Amino acid sequence: MQTSKTCVVVGAGPGNGLSLGRKFTGEGYSVALLARNPKNLANLKSDLPEAHTFECDVTQLGSTQKAFDDVRQELGPIDTLLYNAGAGVFGSIDDVDAEAFEQAWRTNTLGAFNCIKTVLPDMRSQGGGTIIIIGATAAKRGGARFAAFASAKAAQYNLAQSLARHLGPEKIHIAYIVIDGVIDIPRTRQRMPDKPDEFFLDPNDIADAVYDVSQQAPSAWTFEFDVRPYCETW
Amino acid sequence: MQTSKTCVVVGAGPGNGLSLGRKFTGEGYSVALLARNPKNLANLKSDLPEAHTFECDVTQLGSTQKAFDDVRQELGPIDTLLYNAGAGVFGSIDDVDAEAFEQAWRTNTLGAFNCIKTVLPDMRSQGGGTIIIIGATAAKRGGARFAAFASAKAAQYNLAQSLARHLGPEKIHIAYIVIDGVIDIPRTRQRMPDKPDEFFLDPNDIADAVYDVSQQAPSAWTFEFDVRPYCETW
Amino acid sequence: MQTSKTCVVVGAGPGNGLSLGRKFTGEGYSVALLARNPKNLANLKSDLPEAHTFECDVTQLGSTQKAFDDVRQELGPIDTLLYNAGAGVFGSIDDVDAEAFEQAWRTNTLGAFNCIKTVLPDMRSQGGGTIIIIGATAAKRGGARFAAFASAKAAQYNLAQSLARHLGPEKIHIAYIVIDGVIDIPRTRQRMPDKPDEFFLDPNDIADAVYDVSQQAPSAWTFEFDVRPYCETW
Amino acid sequence: MQTSKTCVVVGAGPGNGLSLGRKFTGEGYSVALLARNPKNLANLKSDLPEAHTFECDVTQLGSTQKAFDDVRQELGPIDTLLYNAGAGVFGSIDDVDAEAFEQAWRTNTLGAFNCIKTVLPDMRSQGGGTIIIIGATAAKRGGARFAAFASAKAAQYNLAQSLARHLGPEKIHIAYIVIDGVIDIPRTRQRMPDKPDEFFLDPNDIADAVYDVSQQAPSAWTFEFDVRPYCETW
Asked: Residue A140 and residue A153: Cα distance in Å, rounded?
């Protein structure tokens, strides 16, 4: 029998994805982790055995619909969607070709569109829901070396804002978290071996902030919030 | 013996001020409520007997320093400052004279400057602290009928952002909450008798959101977050 | 012999495209008008016989490269690029399917990327150039009924900002005009027959503003500017 | 007999003030230069003998009203107001005391309020007018070392935006120029002797940009525009 709420984490990797899954599991949610790469899913499953894992390519509407159908079948209707998928395509316009430019948009923006299109009927039939998109400072600022990433993140942000205005009155809470800084995962530590601990955002702390916003009462919903390490220069 | 943390709420009235005081009291803080008007303070004291009340005109540096000295004497060093003072001077440039225009700035902006100047030594000597400023959408948008209020709130917002950048590395967390909508207090209910309940922000929900941010781990501090009712048109 | 400067207007229709073409022609530029639709091009040619017209589908890199090669062959190296292409896909997420959502991005954002990629070598070999992108308020605000358009325009805006930072030092001036309102063309007049003249933006006035920015001295280049009718409510 | 239009430049010094005065004089305006310091005015008069100079402390409403009365008496009703007054109070909250914090606001913000209050009847009786405020990037971003300046400039910006919305329909054009960088005047050159020419904004180029916006047709008015040197890092 399905009693707990269901949370889907899209774009589950060893950083935010795992921490979000762990946090929402710990708070009593049934958690589905979606990722494209089966090996990543196997690793996540071994780190968080309570989670349910599903292969999904969010840039394909068919793949997305199938994964969400499977989630519903296994865990019941979806209450919370945390969209963490995002291709980090970095570099200036000279470094990025049209294909990579498009890939950044497909993963960050079109994937969010596809997932949200797919979960809306569920949330509507339940009288509400929560969708939080994991964003970045690049959504608010087009840096010289972020031609593709900043463009895709801005597209994702404005989509989120449009949805927040459109879906709020249906009690579907849309929020966007602007992550400003480098997340503490093995890959970033290896790339920046000289940085002290406090340089990094702890993904567990990000997950706590996301969880807090997901629990807000509807009289005072947050749409946008930023997080950064206390010692970040910004 | 002083064991609990001390939270000062500046600009304490029957809405946010009381709810913030109640929330932080409930979470174990010693709470000082500061207001200019002794009658308001007496009402607050009767609503929240655990709170400590202090008269203070934040637009006067001397009055501010005296009030904070009294708080320290009674409750020990200050950990958390919640700045809620704010003169709501509304109208276009045709409705507002130079005096009212100045008053809006003195209460919203200069008062925040004075209070923060005054608590900084305390927070520094303790190795950190938390300052959250209660702002409004007018900080981000100068509407036609908000010549004074939007100007003052923008001044308050940019001051807060400057402080966040400057004080973050000293582990002093500055945050700014953008309240978008009308708060549910007797005065606003009387002015808008036809509005349904869900039109209003519940100040207790605002206080919950402020409290969540005040407890964030320093690897993922929020500077800015907005709150509005789910059915708000924005 | 090629003596005048060459300006390419991409996305030439009966509004901004024609007015930009006319303005830059009048100021002594050789003007190339690019559009996908041959019938539109024929109409433009009859309205502005001095212009040179070229078929081009900017969402296809190959088509874009061919069109710009033809422009260069006929008119010499390109000094100024005015990007006016933009699919106006309107409606909330409920009104827009994944295909239309993608089309909005391809025309507004990917097309700009393709054109700019293509002209950069020209501008670099000449030691500079000017690129002005015709944007809209939706770039800065995700309205409920603008899920696709606001997302695409934000993507376009952040791309432009990244380019401005990256290419400024090479004396390539990138600017973004935020058009706030409805442009006066036969189609909009028919759709809004009751609106008075002053409700509309005159595309000739937009062209004047774009021209002014294109002529700025490099010590004081504008990146972003908005235009709206004096009586617009915003 | 008064035939030319009248332009008032408030806060006239050797940089923007002089350049604005020269530009508008050259374009046929009668120009009044207002400053607090009589010695500055004498220097300006010797640099630009066609200008009319008036002493004025814009932080005092009485002084402002008297100066504008004198301008009107000498040059006729005022068409254009360029507000360039601004105290550059720099430093973090630790460097700035309450008095300096207030001074920054009085000069940048209250002074603009006083001047605009004073010219509005003139502009209304003539059926329109133009007011352009000389702003800075600090209006949009509160840097750590700009506690007072960024707060005052944000207050000035939001005031301007409120006025633009309120006064546009009366054909009074309000615009705000965001200057991003260091202006080329003797004082800044002395302070930064190692910087190359292209590091600086030429105030004559700023004046050209301001003039362009002042001449826009009312169907396409700009409210906000930025200017920066082509090689500025931003």
From this structure: 8
User: How many CB atoms are closer than 10 A to CB C217?
Assistant: 16
Q: Whose structure tokens read 């007072």?
A: D148
Give domain limits for chain A: 6-227
Half-sphere exposure of A108 (CA within 13 A, CB side): 33
The SS3 of residue D76 is: coil
Are the Cβ atoms of D198 and C220 closer than 8 angstroms?
no
Look at the block and give the residue holding tokens 């001074």.
D103
ipTM above 0.95, yes or no: yes
C-alpha to C-alpha distance for B143 and B149, rounded to whole angstroms: 9
Using 50, 70 and 90 to split pLDDT, how confident is the model at A169?
very high
Q: Which residues in chain A have their CB less than 8 angstroms from residue B205's CB?
A: 216-217, 219-220
Tokens 């509507």 belong to A124
How far apart are the CA of B177 and the nearest CA of chain A, in angstroms? 10
Question: What is chain C's length?
Answer: 234
Residue (of D114, D86, D90) closest to D101 by Cα position: D90
Query: What is the spatial distance between Cα D210 and Cα C197, in angstroms, rounded to a whole number?
Result: 27
Distances (CA, A) of C103 to A105, B198, C59, C148, C159: 12, 38, 9, 9, 17
Look at the alpha carbons of B184, B186, B188, B194 in this order and tell me if their dihedral is positive or negative: positive
d(CA B177, CA B168): 17
Q: By C-alpha distance, which of B176, B157, B153, B177 is closest to B228?
A: B177
Q: How far is CA B148 from CA A26, B15, C178, D156, D216, in A?
A: 47, 22, 27, 10, 28
Cα dist. C201→B26, C182, C225, C226, D222 in Å? Answer: 56, 6, 15, 12, 12
Residue C1 clears pLDDT 60, i.e. is over it = no
Q: Tell me, what's the pLDDT at B1? A: 41
**CA nearest D165 in B: which residue?**
B144
In this structure, the number of other CB atoms found within 10 A of the CB of residue C196 comes to 8
How far apart are the C-alpha atoms of B125 and A181, rounded to whole Å? 28
pTM: predicted TM-score of the whole model, two decimal places? 0.97
What mean pLDDT is predicted for residues C7-23?
95
Report domain B6-227's class.
alpha beta
State the nearest Cα–Cα gap between B217 and chain A, in angstroms: 6
Local structure of residue B93 (DSSP, 8 states): T
* Paired tokens of B23: 């929330």
Q: Which of D194, D197, D170 is nearest to D183 (CA)?
A: D197
Do residue B209 and residue A220 have CB atoms under 8 angstroms apart? yes
The single-letter code of the amino acid at C66 is: K
Cβ A228–B232 below 8 Å, yes or no? no
* Pairing state between β B6-10 and B80-83: parallel
- Which tokens is A47 given? 């780190």
Which residue, B78, B25, B28, is CA-closest to B51?
B25
H helix or E strand, kind and range, residue C22: helix C16-26
Residue B84 C-alpha, separation from nearest chain A C-alpha, in angstroms: 17
First CA to last CA distance, chain A: 49
Angle, alpha carbons C161-D90-B165 (nearest 5°)? 60
Q: Give the relative orientation of helices A203-214 and B203-214 as an angle to the nearest 10 degrees.
A: 180
pLDDT < 70: residue spans in chain D: 1-3
Query: Is residue A1 scored above 70 in pLDDT?
Result: no
